[in-house]
Design goal:
Helix content: 25-40%
Protein name: ATP-binding cassette domain-containing protein
CATH superfamily of the largest domain: P-loop containing nucleotide triphosphate hydrolases
Order of helices and strands: EEEHEEHEHHHEHEHEEHEEEEH
Radius of gyration: 21 Å
Family: Belongs to the ABC transporter superfamily.
Distance between the termini: 35 Å
Bound molecules: adenosine-5'-triphosphate
CATH class of the largest domain: Alpha Beta
Organism: Nocardioides albidus
Keywords: ATP-binding, Nucleotide-binding, Transport
Number of domains: 3
Strand order of the largest sheet: 6-7-8-3-9-10
Number of strands: 14
Oligomer: single chain
GO molecular function: ATP binding; ATP hydrolysis activity
């Protein structure tokens, strides 16, 4: 079953069109949303999280249209959302905050609610910090509190806006493990600027630029678009589309024609992303 079905979806802020004519269908599994700053990722995620409405096109979530209040309530019961910026009340404890969200999500039975809060804190590795005040947490720990509240009730649809921001490598690996388990039954849509997170975690990748979908397909198919277009060279190559000196002292050349003396390199998702977006990869199209 497809949990997300967007047809011709658009959204403007005043006269500025942030999202234009997006078609997207998602079933169970993890999909990564990539794109430069201002590409429209947060706008798209907020639409899928029912936090803002599309002003064009059709949105169906978990098999339902967004017709009225009753449909929205039903969808929100099965939806978890980690916004890009979650305002945390610093005075609350980790447990207190996640329990507060659980109350809002209508976990009325105290025993069941406490059990669920402990379960999600355990899932994100915060069980030992549950009594700590949020104001005393590191940025990465705070991000995991945000993830914990999104996981309450094992939602069938999980929308995560930059969940890996602020996480150290061990925390990112732990997050990948958690999402890998969650995504066996749920549809997970996450945005990130880390192509390696998408390569490690997602089957599918959607690239947005200037509010439009530039690529939608399997991660391996996107990586394949860079095959034969990435090289290692002992010398700097003037005029390369993208190049940098790596830690080994050799230069990685992405795009352009094969430089003399250069060796072919295994392409990564990042190479494919840089090639696909060209100058848009670094400049906001907005
Ligand atoms: N509330 C708003 N009012 C006006 N313009 C907005 C608003 N929210 C977003 N925008 C504009 O819409 C465009 C898309 O923004 P969005 O936050 O969706 O991009 P993004 O891909 O998530 O960017 P980032 O990677 O920087 O988080 C940007 O040009 C942004 O300035």
């Amino acid at each position: 079953m497809n949990h997300v079905e967007l047809t011709g979806v658009g959204r403007s802020y005043g006269s500025f069109r942030a999202l234009a004519d997006v078609d997207l269908t998602l079933g169970a599994g993890v999909t990564g949303l990539l794109g430069p700053n201002g590409a429209g990722k947060t706008t798209l995620l907020r639409i899928v999280a029912t936090s803002i409405a599309a002003d064009r096109g059709e949105v169906r979530l978990l098999g339902r249209g967004l017709g009225g209040h009753a449909e929205l309530t039903e969808i929100r019961r099965e939806l978890g959302y980690l916004p890009q910026e979650l305002g945390y009340p610093g005075d609350m404890s980790v447990f207190g905050f996640v329990e507060y969200v659980a109350v809002l999500k209508e976990w009325d039975d105290r025993r069941a609610r406490h059990h669920e809060v402990r379960r999600v804190l355990d899932l994100v590795g915060l069980a030992d910090l549950s009594g700590k005040r949020i104001s005393r947490l590191s940025g990465g720990q705070r991000r995991r509190v945000g993830l914990a509240q999104a996981l309450l009730g094992s939602p069938r649809l999980l929308v995560l806006d930059e969940p890996t921001t602020g996480l150290d490598p061990a925390q990112r690996a732990a997050l990948r493990r958690t999402l890998g388990v969650v995504a066996q039954d749920a549809t997970v849509l996450l945005s990130t600027h880390q192509t390696e997170d998408v390569a490690a975690l997602c089957e599918r990748v959607v690239v947005l630029a200037g509010g439009a979908v530039r690529f939608d397909g399997a991660v391996i198919d996107m990586v394949a678009t860079a095959a034969g277009r990435v090289w290692h060279s002992d010398v700097e190559v003037p005029g390369a589309q993208v190049s940098w000196r790596t830690g080994t002292g050799r230069h990685r050349i992405v795009g352009g024609s094969r430089p003399p003396g250069a060796e072919a390199a295994e392409p990564t998702l990042e190479d494919a992303y840089l090639l696909m977006l060209g100058p848009d990869a670094v400049a906001s199209p907005a």
